[in-house]
Fold each of these.
Amino acid sequence: MRLRTLTALAGALTLSLVTGCAQGGGTGASSNTVTYWLWDANQLPAYQACAKGFEKENPGLDVRITQLGWSDYWTKLTAGFIAGTQPDVFTDHIQNFGQFADLLVLEPLDDLGIDDSAYQPGLAANWIGKDGHRYGAPKDWDTVALFYNARMTADAGLAPEELNSLSWNPEDGGTFEKAIAHLTIDRNGRRGDEPGFDRHHVKVYGLATGGGGYGDGQTQWSNFAASAGWNYLDKARWGTKYQYDSRTFQSVIKWYFGLAKKGYMPPLTDYNVQSNQQNTQIAAGKAATAFDGAWMISTYAGFKGKDIRTALTPAGPTGKRATMMNGLADSITKASKNKAGARKWVSYLASDACQKVVGRYGAVFPATPAGTEAAVAAYRKKGIDVSSFTEPVADKKRFRTFSYPIASYSADMKALMQPAMEDIYGNGKPVSSLDETNDQINLILSQ
């Protein structure tokens, strides 16, 4: 059913592009206007500032920015590709790149002269398609760290130094699980590592839940799987086989979701992507720690009356700490009505001229080193230490950074992995069930 849906969508998109049905009437595009979409409201002021700088350097060109919420953004963008209401330029996410590349809705950007060495390692290379063409200009990056309530950790006798030196393994969880257990408190005041602990009536969980993690587990289990030496695919980019049937991966997942069975992490029923994410649990005092991304730094820092800090991800069986390093990009739509203006805008977005401006707003880490430095300085002025996010990028000996899985049919992978992971987490299905799911995904990938 999913394959049939994808084929139908691909056919509709190809038809609109080939026949010229997409007129772009809803975009407001013209030879004097470049339409640009993004989803993050926190970044809107920074890009409005970039637009002013761009317009000053390019008299006669105006940038019209539209900001939409995450879910509405992708729904409207996908519909826009079919209806002809797509923007000239949009903020692209690597998890959707494979699907968009398959559907031929992105404009090649080879002529922009993007130099990999001008950006943080790996960011530019991720946006090269299977055909060898570039489809995205590096925009920003993020990593994942452990946010924690400093009062709760202090009450538990855990110093910041201890939290930054935790390690784990899939057999007994190591010092990480011991810390999470000790931070968990039941309704009678007993900690998770004390006799008589009631796992069925927990007041404060040691670790917040981010749900099942779909097929990437970015802020859930990805750092554990990677620090155990596992890879999503048989190749770093455009792999031909997923590896969810790996015994290493399945041992990680069994241990990770097992934290909920022990009462150290909330059950799946407590998680809601709209109203009860990790940061919500921390804000409400229902959890002491949470794995979350750099894009959430300002959110956690803004919790009134709470001292929220960050620690490095725990070291795994390989001896290294690991974190996904995701990087967004700016892409031009194939049906853009102002490709010349769009190319100028994307080039400007990827330049230090814009990236340093964005960095000074302290909302995200821009892709260029100079932009990153500006962001670090901006966070420092706010009294926020972001070293837990920047250290993994700077120190490859101690840390492993890795990307989202980049492959075709990414939406189909997600559609299959979401219920599979939720069945394991919420319904106690054995991790060996991932063998069948992996076979289904790879069958689609082989098409």
Amino acid sequence: MGIWISVPLVVILGWVYVSMELVGDYSENPFEGSYNDVPMLSICRTIEIDLLQMLGETDVPEPILPVGDILM
């Protein structure tokens, strides 16, 4: 009886480890430019706009808008 329980248990355990490895690979480099990454361009542009507004500048660039629901 133990062999019939161990086979599905090992398959599930192996799937968990493979899934954890894939999640680790995707989150390993957050500045690569894929859809799950940190939107550095948008963050930098927001900081630039805020600083220019604090200095009283009138020629302020437009914020970065999402393209296809992905903010770069």
